[in-house]
Structure formats: C-alpha cells, structure tokens
Design goal:
The protein has about 600 residues and is of the alpha+beta class. It is built from 17 helices and 17 strands. Helix 2 crosses helix 3.
Length: about 600
C-alpha cells in the first residue's frame, strides 16, 4: 500500500491507504470471484448473468485479432471491441478456469499494448481501452507471466495513464471535466488506470485519482434534480454505465466513493430509462439516442446500492428471458455480476403515472399503467440544440397495445455524414447539421411553420404535468421555439387508457400555414377527417377534431439533402390548416371499434 499526503484532499488520505496491495482489486477481489462461482449454482439471476457473460465470451473467441484500424478519426470501435472481449473473457476465465478465455483475453490486451497509441486525438478511445487493459492486467494478474505483466503495465501507463495525467494538467480543456458523457467515460478510464497501476505509480496514481474524482463531479451535474439525461436514454446508458463503474472501482478499492453517489439526482436516475421506455419496449429516443432498450450495466449498480426496484420493470425480467442464441448485453456487463451479489428485495410499491424531469431537458412521460398493454406518451421540452440534440423541442412519441404509433426516426450515422464532409458537430443556427432531415424539426412530431428551423439556444418550458383519477395531462409553453416565424405555440396533452389527445394553439403565423404532423411505422390510410393506422394486428383511429378546414395527408418521411438517409417503412402523417392568425389543432388517438 502507498502512504499518501495529498494537499487539498487530506480527507481522502485514509481511504486511499486502504487500496489493496495485491490483485485482483478492480471491482472485486479473489473472494468475490469465488462467491460468484458458488452463487451461480443456486441463484437463477446470477446464473443468468454468468450465462450472458459466457455467451459474449464464446462469441468473442471467434473474433479476428485486434488491429489498430481507424474509422475516420476514431479508434473507438476497436477499443469497444477490446473492452467487450477482455471483460467477458477475463470474467469467464475467473469463473471457469477455462484457459481458452485466459489466452484470448491476454492476447487482446497484449495486441492493444503493441499499438503505437490509443488515439488520444479522440479521447474516448483512450478511456475505453484503458478500462479494458486495466481489467485484463488486474483480473488475470495471478496467471500472467512476469513478462506479460510488465508489458501490460507498460502499455497501460504509456497509452493510458500518462495521457490522463496530461489531460488532468489542462483544467480548462480537460476531457475528464466535460459536462457530458465524455467526462464520465474519461474519468472512469483514469480511475481504472490509477488503481490498476497503484503500487507502480505511487503518488502519481493517487494524484490522478484525485483529479479524476474531482472531474467526475462536473458531468454528474446533469442529473439534477430528478435524474434526467440531456443526451437521451441511449447516451444515458453510455455515460451512466461508465459513471457507476468509476464509483464501484472506488467503493471496492478505497471503501468510499468520496460522496459521488450523493450528487443531486444521481439516485433518481436509476429510474430514468424506465420512464423513457414505452410498453412497446422502445425508448423515447430524443437527441441522438437509439430506439431499442437493452439490458443495462448501470441499473444493476443502483439496485445493489439502495434502489432495488430499479431492475423490476425491465432489467430482471429481460435478463431472465434472454435466449442463448441472441443474448446481447453491453460490453461492460461483466461488471454487473459483482453487484448481483448485493441485491435486496424491492418494496412492492405502486409507481406514479406521470413524471416530469424538472430541469432544462424538459422531458414528460405519462402512462395509463405499468403493464405492457399500457397507453404511453412522452414529450420533449427543454433546450433547442443541446449536446447531441435535434431540433425536436415539443416532439412526442406514443405507444398503445405494445406498439409504437408515433415515433422518432432517430439519428444519422456519424461516420457516414462526416465522410461526406458535412459539419455534423456545429450546433450554430446556420449549421449544416440542421439541414439533415432526421435532425431538423421537419422529421419530428411538432408543428412546422414553413421552412423555419427551431431557434437554437431557446427553450420550451413544461408548464405542468399531473395525473388525477387515471388521467394524465401536461402543458408546454413553446412560444420561443419558432419566434418570430410564429408568435406563439402552446401544446397540451391528455392520456388515459384508450385515449391520447394533443392540442396545439398557434398564434401570429403572419399568413404562413403551420402544418401539424407525426412520423409512424404503421400503415396509414387517410379517410376524410380520420387516419387509420394499422400495425401488429391492431388499428388506431387518428381524428382531426379541429380545425374543420384542416386536411390530412400521408407520404414518405424523407428529406432532400444529399446526406439524408432513406427511411424505409416510415410515413409522415400531416394535418394542414389554412393560414390564419390563430389555429387550434385538436387531434385524438383512439382504438378502432371491433370489426373496423
């Protein structure tokens, strides 16, 4: 163990003295691996987790050798592949003693350390590879030759640890202090590197640990006050997975997380993806988020650390139902096995039906109940053009009968757009990013005044979100979103079992028609004042209750920019009223009568 006296961090000296001298010490020790072996024999949940890890490890055995091959300016795909392979194979080896897993994980780690670098120009690459090699070095330590230990330690120091030290010395430009997923992933990589090389790097490792813990507080500020994530539920999984791994590394090695788990909103974020997942199993994929929800890494940590109910809605039943031939889990899922050892029963308490994020993200979710047959809708207020954001303020998604009826088409592929020379990452008002159909307001479930774009930097406000007697209601003030193209936009929504209604009041359009619309993957047929949506053997009726002069249309959901992807299977359903000083759209979604 290393004796420490850190200026400005003296309160941490005692915890740092507790860092174990031997290996393994990242997330668990030899005793924890032994307990996992035994628990897997009797506990169905732990057995399912171990099975998932072994399926991932077996698949990884078939992968070709790791190569340093960039995709554009990123090495990230290679680093993620290395992390998936090493974490699953090293864990599988510790649980089975099968040398195939040992040799495979060892080979991946040695190949990674032979790279010229881990692409520090894109620092996420350094961070993910650092976690991967740190786990290999630590979990396989007892069986590695002294030569392999030296090679892995030297590679981790040169390509990872030293890069984090350089980053920490740039407080104004540190990637570890980024107020987004970058800060979480990079801080985690630094913590893993410091703890893996603890006895080798001495005070330098302790100093890096101090910087990383301090840095991690910055991106964790986004969780306040209720756990919402500005970058959407897809990026929530990325940032939060690495965030909880960082905390778990500290908890095991130091006996404390230095107060990180008490950051405002962090405990509440355990339920964020439940709120943003519809009964269809699809997420409210605002910003650059993906659509399908998969088993999480982070939620299992929350379940073991005071929020046991966080796995009840999705994680536990999904993991237990996974089939061997299609068992997809995150590349960090092996870490969850340690947390499964500390699970406690959850209280059988009813969940509310409405949730408002209470922050500038402005997410509202409402549902008729917490079953797979529920009616569900989620809305996005908040800041126009936030990090990874789209021009989607005011947009919504809607589920009923286990199907998604109004959806978000999703993001564009980063590398494809970048390779075309399109400036994807500028969020200025005149950025070419906003000319892409999927990212602009024209593809989202909002009103669209002519060719006007939503105003980057402006915000839509949640006025209220509440539930009474099984009926959920919400209201939004979206006046600033399109001003001065239109003078005002107020959106209200009502949801209960069997009914979803959206009302939009638009004022000051100054002679411009302002169509109302949504995107759907259902088959859409216009029948006068109604649109019939058919999907999954069900039919919904969408009625234009007002204005009387409005006309429905339905056509392909496609843009005209050269960079736009085709969106097969997606239809844009539009309700258009004549231009007027004030237009009030009232649109209802109901189930078709039997036989219709």
């Amino acid at each position: 163990m290393v004796g420490l006296a850190l200026a400005g961090w003296s309160a941490a000296a005692e915890p740092l003295k507790q860092v174990p001298a031997g290996h393994p010490r990242l997330l668990g020790g030899a005793h924890d691996f032994a307990v996992l072996r035994e628990r897997a024999k009797a506990d169905p949940l732990v057995a399912a987790g171990v099975k998932a890890v072994r399926v991932q490890a077996d698949w990884s055995l078939k992968r070709p050798p790791l190569q340093r091959k960039l995709e554009g300016f990123r090495l990230l795909g290679v680093c993620r592949d290395a992390l998936a392979r090493i974490s699953s194979q090293a864990m599988a080896y510790r649980l089975t003693d099968d040398r195939r897993y040992f040799e495979a994980a060892r080979k991946v780690a040695l190949d990674a350390c032979a790279f010229e670098d881990w692409n520090p120009k894109h620092f996420l690459d350094v961070s993910e590879m650092s976690l991967a090699v740190a786990l290999a070095y630590d979990w396989l330590y007892a069986d590695l030759s002294s030569e392999d230990r030296e090679t892995l330690a030297a590679g981790l120091k040169r390509h990872g640890f030293d890069e984090f030290v350089k980053d920490a010395a740039r407080p104004r430009r540190s990637r570890m202090r980024s107020d987004c997923n970058w800060g979480q992933v990079c801080s985690c990589g630094a913590i893993a590197s410091a703890l893996a090389l603890w006895e080798r790097e001495g005070a330098a490792a302790a100093a890096l640990l101090e910087k990383a813990v301090d840095s991690l507080r910055v991106p964790m500020g986004v969780y306040a006050p209720k756990g919402a994530y500005p970058e959407g539920p897809g990026y929530w999984a990325y940032g939060t997975d690495f965030n909880v791994i960082a905390i778990a590394l500290l908890q095991h090695a130091c006996g404390t997380d230095f107060g990180l788990s008490k950051v405002e909103g962090f405990r509440e974020t355990a339920y964020y993806r439940d709120w943003t997942t519809g009964p269809s199993g699809e997420m409210f994929n605002y910003s650059d988020s993906g659509l399908r929800r998969s088993v999480s890494t982070a939620v299992w940590w929350f379940a073991a650390n005071g929020e046991p109910a966080s796995i009840d809605f999705f994680e536990r039943p999904t993991l237990l139902a996974l089939r061997q031939n299609r068992m997809t889990v995150p590349r960090t899922f092996a870490c969850t096995l340690f947390w499964m050892l500390g699970l406690k029963p959850s209280a059988d308490a009813p969940r509310p039906l409405v949730w408002d994020s209470g922050d500038e993200t402005g997410v509202v979710a409402m549902r008729s109940d917490w079953t797979t047959n529920a009616w569900f809708a989620a809305f996005k207020g908040g800041l126009v053009g936030a990090n990874h954001g789209h021009l989607d303020v005011g947009s919504f998604v809607f589920d009923a009968f286990g199907q998604r009826w109004a959806g978000d088409i999703g993001p564009e592929g980063y590398h494809r757009i970048e390779s075309m020379g399109i400036g994807l990452w500028s969020r200025k008002q005149d950025s070419e990013r906003w000319r892409l159909y999927r990212l602009a307001n024209a593809s989202h479930n909002v009103v669209n005044p002519g060719e006007a774009l939503q105003n980057v930097g402006k915000s839509g406000k949640v006025v209220y979100a509440k539930e009474s007697g099984g009926t959920c209601t919400a209201a939004f003030d979206l006046d600033a979103v399109y001003a001065p193209a239109i003078g005002g936009w107020k959106r209200r929504a009502t949801l209960k079992a069997g009914l979803f209604k959206v009302e939009d009041a638009i004022t000051g359009a100054d002679g411009v028609s302002v169509p109302w619309g949504f995107a759907t993957q259902a088959a859409a047929t216009v029948e006068g004042r109604e649109v019939r949506l058919k999907r999954g053997g069900r039919t919904l009726v969408v009625r234009a209750e007002s204005p009387a002069e409005a006309v429905w249309s339905a056509g392909p959901a496609e843009g005209s920019h050269p960079g736009d992807s085709r969106n097969p299977g997606w239809t844009r359903v539009t309700l258009t009223a004549p231009a007027a000083e004030k237009v009030v759209y009232r649109v209802s979604f109901t189930a078709a009568e039997p036989g219709q």
